[in-house]
User: Fold this.
Amino acid sequence: MPTTTAPDQSLARFESLAKPRLDAGPAWLRTLREQALARFTDLGLPTRKDEEWRYTDPARLTQTQFTLDTGDVKVTREQVARFAIPGLDAHTLVFVNGRYVPDLSDLGSLPAGVTVLPLTEAFDKHRDRIEPHLAEEGEPSSKAFTALNAAMFDDGIFVHVAKDTTLDKPVVLLNVTTAAEPASAGRSPVMTNPRTLFLGDANAQATIIEHYVALDDSVYFTNAVTHVEAGPGAHLSHYLIEEESPNAYQLSTLLTEQARDSNVDSHTVLFGGALVRNNCNPRLNGEGGDCLVNGLYMGVDQQHMDNHMRVEHNAPHCDSRQFYKGVLNDRSHAVFSGRIRVANAAQKTDAKQTNANLLLSGDAEATTKPQLEIYADDVKCTHGATIGQIQDEAVFYLMARGVDRTSAHAMLVYAFAAESLERMKLEPVRQMLGKMILRRLPQGEMLENLLDY
Assistant:
């Protein structure tokens, strides 16, 4: 079992982990890291006394003692291959315990105007594009963790798509985490701090997929921060697929900034982890922007999944849509906290937020808190939330047509969850996720054959 510490000791423990990282990278980065560590110290670690953490107890995470990866873990191509997305032609970069591994990656040939580099290689050539984003804090309730990431990140990725350039193949960032081999007795769980910068200039088009996987059931902590910047007229897509160890902790923060007439869609699917917190903070800063925030989470056993949304409308004539669905079984617990904030200048805003939860067990629990914060007077904003179970009438309808009860139940759960997949443009991703959903359901194999997956 991981060693736990008191709150003050926990803060000091994270500080001690961060300090050796201050000198990692070029000289200019040290000042930024020092400032980030100071912010982290001032903010402190969250507790359930903080309103935005009221329904998620971070103590399990914050009181666990972690260590940083020492680079002694070896992963083979065969192990990585099992996480490939079937049928997807992509530029793939593999990270093991937070470190980029070129021998396992397949970047391929990039079109002119596209740059894809590990951050450690991009610092010197692209400092002017990287430095301003490393201090970004993202969603307010998780500032401490984004600051900790800025102070500690070991590696990451820089993706830049130039003006009027289309990247026709997605960039896949496969983040693999595993325990040290051979396992060291008494060794603390590893902590990684992935950092992703995804920048699209005017009229750029591109897609990135962050895929988090585990090779074993070890305890570890992934503290990921992703910054997406869409220039005027850009169309950018971001996917996050989370398949962490059932004993892992993951906290991911996505910050998107949109200029005039840009379009950003974000798709998040959560399957793994013991405690998962997904923070999403789109900012529509230019007139005519459009944003889609789409997500699905499926909890089993005693998993805890917390989705924290904050969509900021800062300019007029912008549209945003939030669609999040949860399927919860056993004693799992999900939290959805969604806020739409419309600034005074953001007239003609059209924003919608929905959260629907399906409980498959009497012990499963969902907490949902949709919120509107509106300072403009000419807007169209709606929100809604539901928590329910499979309707007996729907089950009876299928049984009356020759479907057994278990299969009918599985079909209805799949139909509920698969609606989230329909909003995704990449067919291979939809296919893979559809199979993953079915494999979590009774009679899933039968349905897989029926749906011709």
Observations:
- The CA atoms of residues 113 and 162 lie 5 Å apart.
